[in-house]
Amino acid sequence: QAHLQESGGGLVQAGGSLLLSCAASGRTFSSHDMGWFRQAPGKEREFVASIRRGGHPTLYTDSVKGRFTISRDNAKNTAYLQMNSLEPEDTGVYYCAVSEASYYSGSYMPASSPREYDYWGQGTQVTVSS
Question: Phi/psi at 115 (nearest 5 deg)?
């Protein structure tokens, strides 16, 4: 049974930084795309960043480009999201996810739609105060 566990969320002032981690257990996901999504109160879950199985390429939503960096350590079965220059608009619950279909995909870019992801963590709260 695959399990994803996020950690690293918290309360930070605008302009601050956080490092989110996503540790996978139960299965090895070194050959799968991994992604980060977020959901603000009253809004739908949205794509933040994703990373192809080999560590590149990566994909970001426009609002976080230049501020967030996604990475992975396949030896640790873990993905990371380094978030810098945080803004109040970044507030939400952050989820990591793994795409099963990406294992078989010949696509160059990593998956970015929530529908393409099969395994999800419970989420970690990120709150950015102004």
Answer: -65, -20
Place of tokens 């299965």: 27
Task: Name 22's bridge partners.
Answer: 6, 79
Ramachandran region of residue 90, left (φ > 0), alpha (ψ -120 to 50) or beta? alpha
The arithmetic mean of pLDDT across residues 26-52, rounded, is 95
pLDDT level of residue 107 (50, 70, 90 thresholds): confident
Tokens of 98: 């793994």
List, for residues 14-28, the tens digit of each pLDDT value. Answer: 999 999 999 999 999
Rounded (5°) CA angle 34-81-62: 85
3-state secondary structure of 101: helix
| Residue in the structure block whose two tokens are 């969320």 | 9
- Alpha-carbon span 59 to 107, nearest angstrom: 13
